[in-house]
Specification:
Elements: E1 13-18, H1 24-38, E2 42-47, E3 64-70, H2 78-85, E4 94-106, E5 109-111, H3 118-128, E6 132-142, H4 154-176, H5 185-213, E7 216-218, H6 227-231, E8 237-240, E9 246-249, H7 258-262, E10 268-270, H8 272-285, H9 289-302, H10 306-332, H11 336-344
Parallel strand pairs: 1-2, 1-3, 3-4, 4-6
Antiparallel strand pairs: 4-5, 7-10, 8-9
Helix pairs in contact: 1-4, 8-10, 9-10
């Protein structure tokens, strides 16, 4: 499978834009493009990594555009949210949005993930920009959140993927037969969770993603090859240091798990010890007397709950502390003793890694950067 795969110039045509971490959304985008081609629609898939939304050229009512993305924090990843917000006016171009969510297999039971607000937010943005949104859907692909649990082995991963493929094909066939794809039990399921989890989604976009980006580091087995930097879809990883360079993560990291899943030495880790200590410190900030007092005064003047004011005031020191913590972790992880302490306190050191079984490393080197 490769991007920009169009087997004919037939009109109307379809461009499927995707963001992917370990290959799941890329696979779903390919399936949709294949069904479009089977329906006589010239189709291509294209990653949004390194692409400007302004370069998208909506063709009007006779053409199609689709967006496929993983679920982060029960909503859109920031990179896809920003891409959608920057799209040019749709001019009636037909559109759809699809999410991949964290499917699980606990023998012999398959459990669904939750995409929450993702498809509804995406469809609202597209509609506002003048696209004719024909449908939305969420599909269970193997959960790749290796910061929390081991990746699935190939047998379990393929079993989850095999269940997803016919659902994706049915969704695509409905769309390309000229029908709408809105009314389904799965969309009702996601609408329920969207209403329940929207506060979590907002917190993820505003603060959560920065926290997750600040706890990655390279363990002792890192060889400094720079593959993680070359593969990073957001350009968040740079190679720094002296003779032996090591990866450093910035806050543009989307926690897509590509570096964890694709590192040939399994060197990329998530520091649980650092995460717990950092979170405890950040939460403790809200108990500082000056915070409490200032919050009470402002809340009284504005007639709003003091807890709301406290959390809003907390955002500034939160980001400052995250930034300082990140710089400190970078320096500590260069010291062999501390690097081993952090490593042995991180379950990711023993977690199985995951990427979509038929996706190669070379498929995910989306942008080349000097190391």
């Amino acid at each position: 499978m490769s991007d920009h795969t169009s087997n004919s110039p037939i009109i109307p045509d379809l461009a499927v834009y995707y963001f992917t971490g370990t290959g799941n959304s890329r696979r779903v985008a390919a399936w949709i493009a294949e069904r479009a081609q089977a329906a006589g629609i010239g189709a291509r898939t294209e990653t949004i990594a390194g692409k400007r939304a302004a370069d998208v050229s909506p063709g009007g009512p006779g053409t199609w555009v689709g967006f496929v993305t993983p679920t982060h924090g029960f909503t859109l990843p920031w990179i896809m949210l920003r891409f959608l917000l920057r799209l040019p006016a749709g001019r009636g171009t037909q559109a759809f949005a699809a999410a991949t969510r964290a499917g699980m297999k606990i023998d012999p039971v398959f459990t669904p993930g939750v995409s929450g607000t993702l498809t509804w937010l995406a469809s609202a943005i597209l509609a506002f920009k003048g696209y004719r949104v024909r449908g939305v859907a969420s599909f269970d692909m193997p959960s790749n959140w290796m910061a929390v649990h081991p990746g699935f082995g190939e047998i379990a991963a393929r079993a989850i993927i095999a269940r997803a493929e016919p659902r994706v094909e049915a969704f695509a066939d409905t769309l390309f037969a000229g029908k709408r794809a809105w009314l389904s039990w799965w969309n009702a399921y996601e609408l329920f969770w969207a209403l329940v989890l929207w506060p979590v989604s907002i917190l993820y976009v505003i603060v959560g993603r920065f926290f997750l980006a600040s706890i990655n580091y390279a363990g002792p087995s890192c060889t400094g090859c720079g593959l993680c930097s070359r593969m990073c879809p957001t350009g968040a990883i740079t190679m720094r240091g002296g003779e032996k360079k090591r990866p450093v993560w910035s806050f543009s990291c989307e926690s897509c798990m590509r570096c964890l899943g694709m590192c040939p030495e399994n060197a990329v880790q998530v520091s649980y010890l650092w995460a717990f200590g950092l979170w405890y410190g950040l939460v403790s900030l809200m108990a500082i007397p000056v915070f409490v007092r200032v919050s009470e005064v402002i809340a009284k003047k504005l007639a709003i709950p003091a807890t709301v004011v406290t959390h809003l005031l907390w955002l500034v020191p939160y980001l400052i502390v995250l930034w300082m913590s990140h710089l400190l972790l970078v320096r500590i992880s260069r010291m062999p003793v501390f690097r081993h302490i952090i490593l042995f306190s991180s379950p990711t050191a023993v977690y199985r890694r995951y990427h979509e079984p038929d996706t190669r490393r070379a498929d995910l080197i989306e942008r080349e950067r000097p190391e």
